[in-house]
Amino acid sequence: MQPATAKWYDRREAVFIEFCIEDSKDVQVKFDKTKLDFSCVGGTDNIKHHNEVDLFESIDPNESKHKRTDRSVFCCLRKAEPGKSWPRLTKEKTKLNWLSVDFNNWKDWEDDSDEDLSSFDRFSEMMNNMGGEDDLPDVDGADDEESADSDDEKMPDLE
């Protein structure tokens, strides 16, 4: 058994962790007030993964959720004390080789306006609208190679 590679980022209302395991099966996520326990079987080699994290601060286990996709398992940990910044995910300052910061989603929200407050609400709504695990929507839209970025400019047709 080995730990799954994971990325995390902090928001005003919640902390998000993405366990990067493709084709995961037997996913189990247990939210405790001060701990997260994750396990699954994943990849083409069916490797057993297990991660146990003693969290930096307390979370609300009843409001925390997870979602499995073909590429990862995404967890949303609702903070027990919203508005309190987490400088790291873990209670201990020890560097975990399987854990990194998700800089693509990281924001210094302490200096921001309240516009980001609804990110947890949007995630919650998405989770509530989902059916069973077999009919989960594909949220990995960024992986569609043919989709153009919103900031890409269209070149005029020259004839």
What does this structure look like?
The protein has 159 residues and is mainly beta. Helices cover 8% and strands 30% of the residues. The chain contains one helix and eight strands; from the N terminus they run ββββββββα. The strands form two sheets. It has a five-stranded mixed beta sheet with strand order 6-7-2-1-8, with helices on one face. Strands 3-4-5 form a three-stranded antiparallel beta sheet, with no helix packed on it. The termini are far apart.
Question: How far is the N terminus from the C terminus?
Answer: 60 Å
Number of strands: 8
Q: Strand fraction band?
A: 25-35%
Q: How many helical elements?
A: 1
Q: Uncertain segments of ≥5 residues (pLDDT<50)? A: none
Strand order of the largest sheet: 6-7-2-1-8
Largest β sheet strand count, sense and barrel closure? 5 strands, mixed
Briefly note the structural class of the backbone: mainly beta
| Oligomer description | single chain
Shape: globular
Helix content: under 10%
Mean pLDDT across every amino acid position: 82
What is the radius of gyration?
17 Å
H/E topology pattern: EEEEEEEEH
